[in-house]
Amino acid sequence: MTALPTTSAPSTSTAVPTAKAGAFSDAELRDIRADFPILGSTVNGSPLVYLDSGATSQKPRQVLDAERSFYEHDNSAVHRGAHTLAALATESFEDARSTVARFVGASDDEIVWTSNATEGLNLIAYAMGNASLGRGGADAAAFRLGAGDEIVVTEMEHHANLIPWQELAARTGATLRFIPVLDDGSLDLSALDTVVTPRTRVLAFSHVSNVLGIVNPVEVLVARARAVGALTVLDACQSAPHLGIDVVALGVDFAVFSGHKMLGPTGIGVLYGRRTLLNALPPFLTGGSMITTVTMEAAEYLPAPQRFEAGTQRVSQAIGLAAAIRYLESVGMARIAEHEAALGERLVAGLAALPGVRVLGKPAGTHRVGLASFDLAGVHSHDVGQFLDDRGVAVRVGHHCAQPLHRRLGITSSTRASTYLYSTADEVDQVVDGVRDAAVFFGVNR
Q1: Residue 372, CB half-sphere, CA atoms under 13 Å: how many?
Q2: Is the pLDDT of residue 114 over 80?
Q3: SS3 for 170?
Q4: pLDDT for 125-158, tens place per residue?
Q5: Which long-range contacts (CB under 8 A, 24 or more apart) does 10-13 make?
Q6: Is 237 annotated as catalytic?
Q7: Averaged pLDDT for residues 90-115
Q8: Domains parsed from the chain with CATH numbers
Q9: 277, 285, 401, 411: which is the annotated catalytic residue?
């Protein structure tokens, strides 16, 4: 495919690269895979089949080059120096923010850098706790919680979108409630109006389940939250890399996602927040670079996003994430979604046909990302994963940081295969064949 810029210097154009339409041709998919050095690796004597992108995606050369180029040519602290390197670093850093903002339909000052989505969710929850303690003045009143207020999540949430809200409830006296899931893993929307009530102050939910691959009805959930005056927080970790998102069109108040799941480096995440809300929210971390005036008695804080970016920033990682987004845009998010949907359908249908295999969530034919979790009767997921790993097939095993959901579905763990733009139908078939052989090896019968 066409090489993307590898320099850390900011682009002078804000145009989105033009992508083709339709599914990938075999030649295009080969070209994409050639951009990812690790995909040529051998594991346990077999070619690597990497189907754990839901946890961490692989990185193309364009991202590796962008981060290395920054260190080789422009490395310096941002927003802190008047010399040339500092100016170049700051320009690249803020250009990366603009790239991310464009990708999700936001304004530059609505994008806050974090270490990952988990930090972003903790930032919101902890800052709301600070507001509840009286910090932030009159502007922060909308974030204050106390006894009688309620926070709502769903039963399918990743722990990162559950535990911070548990802690906020404990700190403020608010009550934590949840929207239950049905036997097929989908949200029980019949309970929505009884769970999300005028007492609800926050509704936090995942766009796509990291266990089930289910795409949740954001518009329904946002409409209900708005009807009762609640804030919405979207976990977009499994949607931003695969479907693309427009935070304004979705109507959410906050959203988070992580760079390492979308071809970017580790150690970089994104928090989106509506401008008025970010500027009213008290800071989470405090220190240098996020203040206007400091005396020995008090401090005044910069407006967003800088008020949430204390200390030395994740400069090379932000530049790497911007390169990843340019790569995704050059391929085309619609094409990526189409490619993965086909792989997800093939994966679910193939696994569901095997003896002793229970695929979690809705059956084939349901809109999903290219991800499936399954249980092989009587065999621990770790044993399934080890069996596949012996063949060079990398999958995720365990509860995927979603213990309550697994408990609701009657199991303690599962095996998860997750695809991305570089995954192939042959790799999906290798997973299905490997699980079939595992069933025979472990003596599983339907």
Answers
A1: 29
A2: yes
A3: helix
A4: 999 999 998 888 888 999 999 999 999 999 999 9
A5: 10/91, 10/92, 10/94, 10/95, 10/96, 11/95
A6: no
A7: 97
A8: 84-327 (3.40.640.10)
A9: 401
